[in-house]
Write a structure and sequence with these properties.
alpha+beta; Transferase(Phosphotransferase), domain 1; six-stranded antiparallel β-sheet; three-stranded antiparallel β-sheet; 11 helices; globular
């Protein structure tokens, strides 16, 4: 076959053989080439480990999500059985807000969830209409991916709960002037048709630096009240509930004034007027037993103040204070009889910013002023 090739054919064969030889030489040289030299080891490091990467700053603590609606979540402030409270930022107007969430979808389902959601927005709207310098302002109520939330005014300082312990009680004039402001705030809410239902020290914020007093969580207890028929649990904080509230009767603003009377008793003495390890016994005491005279625990308190406390804690709703303004006037009148006190020193805390909205509602005599027509 090779003998039949002409001159041109032999030329083609020569070219092919040359090309094959060249390719084989190139591959062989690549296989035999030495590997590139390894980088010299880092001084002070083990040769078997690569150099450690440069340290990065730890990421900031974040909640489960970065935003709720239009609000950016900064950090958690508190947590409870119905939800969580976050410090947030409103980018539209550049202000800090407190965001209280309520996990309605975790507590309800079906028609009950629809009813709870409707109640949530209805009560948030009513509370949002309250405009008073001593009531926390509600800016917005919305829902994001099934999580209902309320955006409200962020308040510095701390709540009154820490001042209910012996050794941490506030001076009596400070207590009276602070609760007079709370009583006037409640009076405003009651005129607007809003009953708090869960007045207690944890729901009153004070900021000694600015002198602010703020009542928080209007409407939250009413929102959570849908759980009553589903679970049979008593809502609100039992020790602060009025007799009519404990009995499940219809309530009005006077139930808040009873709770304020319990607060007054506790802030003055460091104790509650009714105490029991048994829920049934506690309920019986609240409904049936007259609260002790506050002077049994602090004999130095004036009789006029004992009368204010007794009238606020009156079992008969028609005899109790009719209006928060009446109670505020009496508290201020007693405060004027007491010697003045100097500035209240700041309380040393554990470093946590309590800006302190409690995350949820818990489960668990002077001359009478007749107010039956209230």
């Amino acid at each position: 076959m090779l003998s039949q090739l002409g001159p041109d054919g032999w030329l083609v064969v020569a070219l092919l053989v040359g090309a094959a030889y060249g390719i084989g030489w190139f591959v062989g040289t690549r296989r035999s080439a030495p590997a590139p030299a390894a980088a010299p080891p880092v001084v002070g490091a083990r040769a078997s480990k690569p150099p450690a990467p440069s340290p990065q700053p730890a990421p900031p603590l974040r909640p489960d999500r970065a935003t709720l609606g239009r609000y950016r979540i900064e950090r958690e402030l508190g947590r409870g059985s119905m939800g969580t409270v976050y410090l947030g930022h409103d980018p539209q107007i550049g202000r800090a807000v407190a965001i209280k969430t309520m996990a309605l979808s975790r507590e309800f389902e079906g028609s009950e969830l629809a009813e709870a959601r409707a109640r949530f927005f209805r009560e948030a709207e009513m509370a949002g209409r309250l405009r008073h310098p001593d009531i926390v302002t509600i800016f917005d109520a919305s829902e994001d991916q099934g999580l209902a939330f309320i955006a409200m005014e962020f308040v510095g300082g701390h709540d009154l709960l820490r001042h209910t312990l012996p050794g941490r009680l506030l001076p009596v004039p400070v207590v009276l002037k602070t609760l007079a402001r709370v009583a006037n705030a409640l009076a405003h809410a009651h005129r607007e048709g809003v009953v708090h239902r869960d007045v207690k020290p944890a729901n009153v914020m004070i900021d000694p630096a600015s002198g602010a007093v703020k009542v928080t969580d209007f409407g939250i207890a009413r929102i959570a009240d849908a759980c009553r028929t589903r679970t049979g649990l008593v809502l609100g904080t039992p020790s602060f509930m009025s007799p009519e509230q404990m009995a499940g009767r219809r309530v009005d603003g006077r139930t808040d004034l009873y709770s304020l009377g319990v607060m007054l008793f506790q802030l003055l003495t460091g104790a509650l007027p009714h105490r029991s390890e048994s829920m049934a016994e506690l309920m019986s005491q609240i409904v049936n037993d007259t609260a002790p005279d506050v002077r049994t625990l602090r004999p130095e308190l004036p009789e006029a103040l004992a009368n204010v406390v007794a009238l606020a804690l009156e079992k008969r709703v028609e005899v109790r204070y009719a209006d928060g303004r009446q109670m505020a006037d009496d508290l201020l009148a007693v405060a004027q009889l007491l010697p003045p006190v100097g500035p209240v020193p700041p309380l040393v805390t554990n470093g946590r910013d309590s800006a302190g909205f409690e995350a949820t509602t818990e489960f668990y005599r002077g001359e009478p002023r007749h107010n039956a027509d209230h």
